[in-house]
């Protein structure tokens, strides 16, 4: 395994996911890419997502501003991991499609992602990203449970 794609959202468990993925990649001496997908810009403006990254809801509906915030978030995680060689990537679109597309484009060997313990209604409405990625990929997955 030479490339590890670590997918992160703004959940408070993202640091845990990044650390576990980083430890695995480091043990394999693999290249590391951190990915964040902007899938629903409306959530960023309502404060739902903003609360996870310690910021106020954005006053603009400019996707470029969202990308800048996401890049800063990933850069912060990269610095906390202590490895400046980590690549960061922000994509926009459907979360599952964007993860799979990034894995293919980057020729990743494994995808690391966290799975949240959400309420049953949220799972019905939003679905499970981990479950959908698992269903649609031929790559190995390293799924980190992030139950609080």
From TrEMBL:
Cell compartments where the protein resides: Cytoplasm
CDD domains recorded: USP-like
Listed Gene3D superfamilies: HUPs
Tree of life domain: Bacteria
Matches recorded under InterPro entries: Rossmann-like_a/b/a_fold (IPR014729), Universal_stress_UspA (IPR006015), UspA (IPR006016)
UspA domain boundaries: 1-145
GO annotation, cellular component aspect: cytoplasm
Keyword Cytoplasm (UniProt): yes
Keywords attached to this entry: Cytoplasm
Coiled-coil ranges per UniProt: none
Pfam families given in the database record: Usp (PF00582)
Family: Belongs to the universal stress protein A family.
Descriptive protein name: Universal stress protein
